[in-house]
Specification:
Elements lengths: L6 H9 L16 E2 L72 H13 L1 H4 L29 H17 L3 H4 L2 H14 L3 H11 L5 H14 L4 H9 L3 H7 L6 H17 L6 H17 L5 H13 L4 H17 L7 H5 L2 H9 L6 H15 L6 H14 L5 H17 L3 H14 L1 H14 L5 H17 L7 H13 L3 H13 L6 H10 L3 H13 L6 H9 L5 H13 L6 H10 L3 H14 L5 H10 L3 H14 L9 H4 L23
Length: about 675
């Protein structure tokens, strides 16, 4: 599952005008906090927004679009424009068109990156794996139990997995079911990872489904499953071979299928981290490079998906250096006059940043990469998306340990903050400097909180929160009290709820329990859905046990406020509370809109209580609507997920979402839109 519920309420109306809206990927609608506009080469607005206003809560999108005829490359259908929100700054992405609130707000980065900080699978866990007994207890994990999850493997094998598999194996049920249900069941199979051979055979069967969405989801599910046997199957799709066409039952492999096959291969490569799988990782890498090097068209989705996938694979250093030297770096630095080339290039710094994590011996080479990035962001003529991606990449690659590179990088980022071409690259520096840390970076962010521009302060606070969180997690000393005091003061002085939300999250990341009383007062006094939700998350992050009853009470009042419901449920889950499960089940039965179903499915998945399994299975089979049944399957998939983090976190983490395309995310169409 991916992220929260902000972004649809901000952008659902205006973003449909960007001609990038398509399939729903069944039951995987993420709701108002999760739609991020495709970059699509659109420039960000040069004007400085006046600050976001409160987003409205939509009633959920319409029924998923009927897919195009699957006989060739499939282009996403163009959605009819709908009215954009009437308040808030505009993006400036489309001249003369009101496209909704600004895309530069901090919420976007947080929703794409939050999973690593929430770490829900580790925190929402029983001391012992759950059975069906009444003694089930969810608590904060103690040391030595971080690998335990709330639902036992036995329960998954005997109850959840058979129920989902039965839906797909019954020759009658898939015909009667909506695409949402079938797609959700396929993804759940991949998440479980049980009976991998049988699961893979089921997924392969659905590749031939006449519904484009189901067929695409089957390909993605193979990657989520991460069965080695899927490598050669996905290769056939990626390279558009005769075998691949036969697997689909089509005359050619669509570009969307190629893209999803690439993502799938990257996911498998990521899973094959063991030294014994070296040959398989190399094989996947060679397939991806072949696709990237031989594809002379400018099909952005295929190229970008291939680059993203290459960045996921934990190859040996010699393989990484070869891929960067021969394929990625030449494409990055040698701009060709080609359609969408800059949008494609923008994903290379992210891929190289991820590859750099596996460079241990050749530190000098990594230093050369950083130097190249610094040269490029020093060039104001460089493409805006490339510059944005480099800022984010530097945040992960640079450390205070290398003093020379550290000073150059921090100075460069500070310069970008003052003089960057676009608001987005300037704002990204707040997070990047926090990730880098060190005295110079922290002092700059502190100064920005007290004397900097108002619109930068949410990003500066987020950077300080991220830095503090990482420092403590790495066993370091917590940041000096001045940091918490500065952010707490900003929270008290600020009047705009959307800004205050970032300060609350920062205090949560810093685990400032001393602020819990102030946050509870804010929760009681605000009616702004997004802000109330973030207050709940912040209280959960700081382990404010005294907030449990308050958050639970707010959840019970949030049936018609999906964004708030989902965020507050995260907070409650972080506090280890399970008593809300019965209420959530009842709310899901009563729900009527897609966004509420999505919020409840994620909430039940977050909390992971064994008591939710039987009602969810019943809802999946007998629910009043296809949406209800699909999201019950989504919740079951989340509960039984084999991975510590949501599977697509590895793709979204530190990704430049402004350079997105529809197969990544764009409102129900991409791999990051799948729950």
């Amino acid at each position: 599952m991916r992220k929260g519920l902000l972004l649809t309420s901000l952008f659902l109306g205006g973003l449909l005008c960007l001609n990038e809206f398509s399939f729903g990927h069944g039951g995987q609608y993420r709701g108002p906090r999760d739609v991020v506009p495709p970059g699509a080469g659109q420039p960000s607005g040069p004007s400085t927004p006046s600050g976001p206003s409160g987003p409205s809560t939509p009633s959920g999108p319409s029924t998923p679009t009927t897919p195009a005829t699957p006989s060739g490359p499939v282009a996403p259908p163009t959605a009819a424009p709908t009215a954009a929100p009437t308040s808030g700054p505009t993006t400036g992405a489309v001249t003369g068109m009101d496209t909704g609130p600004s895309l530069e707000i901090w919420d976007f980065w947080w929703e794409f990156n939050r999973e690593r900080f929430l770490n829900l699978k580790a925190r929402i866990s029983s001391i012992e794996p759950t059975t069906e007994s009444d003694e089930f207890y969810i608590g904060i994990l103690n040391k030595g139990s971080r690998d335990k999850i709330g639902i036992s493997d036995e329960l998954k094998k005997t109850k959840i997995f058979p129920a989902i598999k039965a839906l797909l194996e019954d020759p009658e049920k898939p015909v009667k079911r909506q695409r949402d249900e079938v797609s959700s069941a396929l993804v759940a199979l991949g998440k479980f990872g049980l009976e991998p051979e049988k699961s893979l055979d089921l997924m392969k069967k659905f590749l031939k489904d006449g519904d484009q969405e189901i067929s695409e989801t089957a390909a993605v599910s193979m990657g989520i499953l991460a069965n080695v046997r899927a490598i050669d199957l996905l290769k056939e799709l990626l390279l558009d071979t005769d075998v691949g066409r036969q697997m689909l039952g089509r005359h050619e492999v669509s570009q969307r299928h190629m893209a999803f096959a690439a993502y799938g291969l990257g996911l498998i490569g990521y899973a094959l981290r063991d030294e014994t799988n070296k040959a398989e990782r190399r094989k996947i890498t060679d397939y991806l490079v072949q696709r990237l090097d031989t594809d002379k068209s400018a099909v952005k989705d295929v190229k970008i998906s291939t680059i993203v996938a290459l960045g996921l694979i934990p190859n040996d250093e010699d393989v990484i250096l070869e891929v960067v030297d021969k394929t990625l770096m030449p494409l990055l630095i040698n701009k060709r006059k080609q359609k969408n080339i800059d949008l494609i290039r923008a994903h290379i710094p992210t891929a190289m940043m991820r590859m750099a994590r596996h460079i241990k011996e050749n530190q000098a080479v990594k230093g050369q990469w950083i130097s190249q990035f610094l040269k490029m962001i020093g060039n104001k003529k460089e493409d805006q998306f490339v510059r944005q991606s480099i800022v984010l990449a530097l945040g992960e690659m640079v450390t205070p340990a290398d003093k020379a590179l550290y000073d150059k990088a921090v100075d460069a980022l500070i310069y970008v903050q003052d003089n960057g071409r676009t608001e987005q690259e300037r704002y990204f520096t707040g997070v990047a400097l926090g990730q880098i840390g060190g005295e110079k970076a922290v002092n700059f962010l502190l100064k920005a909180m007290t004397r900097g521009k108002k619109l930068y302060k949410p990003w500066a606070s987020l950077g300080l929160g991220v830095h503090g969180y990482r420092t403590v997690e790495a066993g370091g000393v917590a940041l000096k009290p001045e940091v918490k005091n500065v952010i707490s003061m900003a929270l008290q002085k600020e009047k705009t709820p959307e800004f205050k939300g970032s300060f609350a999250i920062a205090l949560g990341l810093l685990r400032d329990q001393g602020s819990s009383g102030d946050l509870l007062k804010e929760m009681a006094n605000t009616n702004v859905e997004s802000y109330k939700g973030y207050l709940g998350v912040a209280l959960g992050l700081m382990r404010a046990a005294d907030a449990t009853d308050d958050i639970r009470a707010e959840i019970k009042k949030s049936l018609r406020r999906p964004e708030q419901l989902q965020q507050l449920s995260i907070g409650l889950g972080l506090l280890g509370d399970k008593d809300i499960v019965d209420d959530l089940i009842e709310m899901m039965i009563k729900a009527r809109t897609t966004s509420v179903y999505a919020a409840l499915a994620q909430a039940l998945g977050f909390i992971g209580d064994a008591r939710s399994i039987d009602p969810l299975i019943k809802l999946a089979n007998e629910g009043p609507t296809g949406e209800a049944r699909a999201f019950a399957l989504v919740a079951l998939g989340i509960v039984g997920d084999k991975e510590e983090f949501p599977w697509n976190t590895k793709i979204s983490e530190n990704m430049n979402y402004r350079a997105s395309v529809t197969t990544l995310t764009g409102g129900q169409v991409g791999i990051l839109d799948i729950l």
